[in-house]
Amino acid sequence: MDDPQQGTKGPADDGGIVVDVPVAGWVELTAPSREEHLERIASFLDRLAGAGMSAEAREEVRFVVSETASNAMEWGNGGDENRRVRVSYAVFDDELVLKVEDEGDGFDPSLVPDPSGSPISVMRERMKEGKRLGGFGIHVVGKLMDRVVYNERGNAVLLSRSLSRTCPSNPPEGDGDGVARGD
Predict the structure, then answer these.
(1) Of the candidates 132, 127, 130, 31, which has an alpha carbon nearest to the alpha carbon of residue 72?
(2) Which residue range forms the structural domain that includes residue 51?
(3) pLDDT means per 10 residues in the chain (183 residues)?
């Protein structure tokens, strides 16, 4: 039997997802950067972390996991299927904490334009840069979570949300999108 203080590590499933519990209560899922894994990761977290959350809150968290893991695969790991994405989480008394990390070089989230002022302009600029339409996910994530903190390198994001929160609230103090830079 595994020591709960030491954690456990399961074998990879058929698709290459590894589930690890390095310390009691902290669950890590590591997967190759393939879009097919997004639904499986979100579904796994939904089942395990969804206790005590309303159906709406579970859907919001599912979106957050899918969006941040998708960005990690597409932008962080550059679509390289040999690079992996790690999605980790813990559920505390009244808080869900998530961490999404990729193996890429990172980015500066403060350089991501805020589309809320002029979404059409942001979409046009992305098209000129050869990027897919979008760019709204990082800002939606900031509204759905209580706290969003990127590491200094910009390849990992820590997100938290109160389990008693019923709908998106005002973001914490800062630049207005709930996104903060960590040290």
Answers:
(1) 31
(2) 12-108+137-181
(3) 46 70 87 89 72 80 92 93 94 90 93 81 84 78 95 96 68 44 45
